[in-house]
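Continuing the series of single-chain predictions for the mutant panel. This is the parent chain; the variants come on the following pages.
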Amino acid sequence: MSRFTTGHASLGDEPLLVLVDADADRSLRIARRGATVLGMEIPTRKGLRNIADGFRDTQELSTQKGSRFAIMTPFANRVADARYTFEGHAHDLLPGAQGADRAIRHGFLRNAIFDVQREHADDHSASITLTSQSIRPDAHPGYPFSLDIAVTFTLSDSGLTLEARTRNVGKQAAPTFFGWHPYFRLSDGPIDEWELTIPADTLIATDADYIPLPGTRAWGSLDKADSAFDFRSPRAIGSLELNHTYADLRLDADGRARTRLRDPRTGTEIAVWQQSGVMLAFTADTVNRDPRRAVALEPMECMADAFNRDDCRPLITLAPGEERRFLCGVEFIA
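Parent structure:
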């Protein structure tokens, strides 16, 4: 029997896939709906614990409130007023909507049923690849582009790796970027005591709706910014409310930037890593269920509202026939 295995399960009528590391007592449960992680069980000093604060039942999964572990594409987080202009053409993602109803975020795939393209397990890792071809012209208002999305989850001795591949299968360039929205609940204790480390030199400045400020005003050096949001050295979150994006991430020697979260009372610690992009930290103050009981650490290719920013245009433009890859993951430290 191999150390790593893949399997199938269900949550009500929702099909799940399961990755298991038998030697390390670690497992991962993923719903085909949205390619959404529901469970991430690891050993801790207090015994086995599910550190993923994911959806708990089929109703939560189908309504997607809180976007727990959402695959965010073709845009991550918000698009200002649900409107953007790309290559000289104006687009409206919510035609007919008015006022507060114009809020849009996190892309189109949260309720898409992904296909299982591949499952593999051996003594070194277990992986599954989930795919979606649901982003097509006329499928989503204001987005007349064709994308194929593939997301591979790999559980190995080093932890969890998520690889996202986006291919433009249309005949015109498309604006697109990827993000992931995991929530972590290291213990049942208050997050105020948890220690956070974000290796970033820049804090993105936003308006009251969390839309980055225009132009260079969005880019604020943490050397000059309010020190309350500087987590370059590990420190307790305290009462601080975070819904902030960090940029200019410092890479470790292996080419990964690691955002760390630790509960000092239990010793449970993780590192969310990425090779590029930005990190959004969210203390879940506004979620509908269990506010401030988990922390979302969201690796993204670009900041929110990238569709409306000239400084992000080279990063989000995908030419016909081209494919872009984004890598991130979670290391289980204790």
